[in-house]
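Weekly puzzle thread! Below is a chain. First person to post its structure in token form gets bragging rights.
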Amino acid sequence: MYGTDNQQVRNEFIEKNYDDILVQASQGEGEYIATLADLSGCKGLQREFTQKIKLAFPAIFKDTNSKKPQEISNRIDVVIQTANELSQCQVVGQNSEN
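Winning reply:
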């Protein structure tokens, strides 16, 4: 899976920008969701990532009042792992042995 440092950076980004990410995820576009794609290891696949996140929005953001970055990250990971279009996603700095 992802390295601990990469997960922490992504979780901090989600926590700090939750409201903007929530809006842009529902729309399937925007600067915050594109950055989230990069932090999720999907650099160069932002379009595919944002489309999948938009489709999975209800599952990812089940409880919009509960801003728990780790839960959001885990749900995003499930989307990445189950989407063939995102099979090439890999967190920057992650080595192939992880």
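Puzzle host: Confirmed. Bonus trivia for everyone else. The first helix runs from residue 4 to 16.
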